[in-house]
Design a protein that fits this description.
- The chain is built from 16 helices and no strands.
- It has about 300 residues and is an all-alpha fold.
- The chain has 2 domains: about 55 residues; about 210 residues, Orthogonal Bundle (MetI-like fold).
- Helix 5 crosses helix 12.
- The protein is flat, with a radius of gyration of 27 Å.
Length: about 300
Amino acid sequence: MGALRRGDLVAAVAHTRRLPPAVRRRRLLLAVANHAVLIAVSLAFALPVLFMLLTALMTDRQALSANVIPHPFVWSNFKTVFTSIDLFRYTWNSFLYAGLSTVGVVVSSVPVAYAFARIEWRGRNAVMLLVLATLMMPPQVTSVPLYILWSRQYHDWTHIQYIGTLKPLIIPGFFGDAFSIFLLRQFFMTIPKELTEAIRVDGGGHLAVLRKVIIPLSKPALAAVALFNFIYSWNDFYGPLVYLAGNTQSQTLSVALASFRTVHHVDWNLTMAAALVFMLPVIVIFFLAQRVFIEGITLTGVKG
């Protein structure tokens, strides 16, 4: 009891003991330097967005001048954007494309990543390298063959129209994505094998392991993969331009924003307002899922 009290006394004295002035000065300088770098990096990302917002609230004459602060604030620019184009339809098309393709990528990549991470089979590493090699192929290389493939599907027995619709953009997501498979595989390999072996001892198969162990413990990685694919699909311009250029009713916000800029190429205030409307959903989703996104990115790649 006395030794415990002496230990508490020593700990209290050590806690209240002041550090030498040189150490405190060095820690203060390091804290100031770290915060200065963080503030500088934050301003580098925030100032362009602030500039876009201020420009979106200007008149067309002010937007082409050296003025930085709008006078007066023209909030009607956002109303003009909504009335100039069918923004609700294009937003719905973007959400449909990004949402369904994200669901397809997550659903199809999970079992493939599990097979690479947990199932022992001959040639596993070679096939994994082959999957990763597809990341080096730019989409422009396969755009012409894929376009011919989708355009010929209308002449088969189904007579389903693909070109001019969102189908060529959504359906490939249900066949997996190399980058998502790689991220999920890296995360699955960090899960202790003892947990999966306990399910196997109880008579559960691979589906039971996925449902009871892998998926519940992989929520951060799944959220990161979903957010990555959603942002990519939302910002995708090349795919919608190739398959939806002939149908204005199925176009996404990225293509509609490019068309809007072509019509209003000198109205920078309206262009910035339309760009902010385009960016807003992604910014909101990122901040809502920021914690699980950062956690998933941090934990993936721990084990190779």
